[in-house]
Amino acid sequence: MNHVSDTVLVSPAELVSLQAAERVILIDTRDAETYAGGHLPGAVNLRETFTYLATSTPEGLQELRDTFAAHLGAIGLSGQETAVFYEDAMNSGYGQSCRGYYLLTWLGYPRVKVLNGGYSAWKSAGMPVSTEAVTPVPAVFPTDLSQADVMLTKDDVAAALGTDTVLLDVRDVDEWIGDSSSPYGKDFAPRKGRLPGATWLEWYRFMKPSSQGPVFKSPDEIRAECATAGVSPGDTVYLYCFKGARASNTFLALKQAGFTDVRMYFGSWNEWSRDEKLPIETGLPVVKSLKKPALALAA
């Protein structure tokens, strides 16, 4: 049986135990007004975990590193603490807490967790909440960490087109079918569509209802969802969404389910759609030709 220290997802009760055992920095990824209305006691607010729009050029990735090293140091992460991200509810925050987990994983931070079910689960469990603003004690974020190989550039994705690599699109259905370009509005990005040859698994499918609100499905359930789209734990999977939040939710789900070769195109559709030289598929997706085994009929 896994101990809390071995898992990324923690329940409200497990988070309380974790806080009693080690130094924890709680990071609230919601907007400032929602945070002010009530948050986990001691949590600091870092909305840019969700809002930052990145590009995958060398300069863009360096800016991403520098920006979050500064932000995360300012809220007290020195490499010795466990970072725990949370959002309001797992189905309404577009994966924003998981985006924090992905960014710290990429940066090589040793201890990162996500509150499964978010603030809604915390309240449903009868845990205390606070409206007091928290003044963090700044630290120096470590810059000598070994970065994880989980970040893709648009060139990496372009090179994977037409190969056996699974290009997994986890956006909402209106974006997948090309009706909308983004969650920010139908015409926020200049082109609507999807990566050529992409496979679709809407990010909501990796969560399920519980008495405390939506939570992640179990590893077996996640593998079963992937199997319906022909995706297996041994595949090389390249994830994308619009800006790397919903894909972070899926990244966490797949890693928890034992998928080993998973990376994310963090620039996602926001970057890809703005480069007219990059190919896209448009219109309604068509049924792919699949050879189905004949069913044996009972006599």
Structure description:
This protein is of the alpha/beta class and 299 residues long. It has 2 domains: 121 residues, Rhodanese-like domain (Oxidized Rhodanese, domain 1, 3-Layer(aba) Sandwich), CATH 3.40.250; 122 residues, Oxidized Rhodanese, domain 1 (3-Layer(aba) Sandwich), CATH 3.40.250.10. The strands form 3 sheets. The protein has a 5-stranded parallel sheet with strand order 1-5-4-2-3. It has a 5-stranded parallel sheet with strand order 6-12-11-7-8. Helix 5 links the parallel strand 4 and strand 5. The N and C termini lie far apart (46 Å).
What order do the SSEs take from the amino end to the carboxyl end, as H and E? EHEHEHHEHEHEHEHEEEHEHEH
Mean pLDDT figure = 93
Number of domains: 2
Side-by-side strand order of the widest sheet: 1-5-4-2-3
Q: Low-confidence segments, ≥5 residues, pLDDT <50?
A: none
Return the structural class.
Answer: alpha/beta
How many separate helices?
11
Q: Care to count the β-strands?
A: 12
Major sheet summary line: 5 strands, parallel
Instruction: Give the CATH level 1 class of the largest domain.
Output: Alpha Beta
- Radius of gyration of CA atoms, rounded to a whole number: 20 Å
Tell me the name of the CATH homologous superfamily of the largest domain: Rhodanese-like domain
Helix content: 25-40%
Q: How many angstroms separate the termini? A: 46 Å
User: How large is the share of residues in beta strands?
Assistant: 5-15%
The CATH architecture name of the largest domain reads 3-Layer(aba) Sandwich
Anisotropy-based shape: globular
CATH topology heading of the largest domain: Oxidized Rhodanese, domain 1
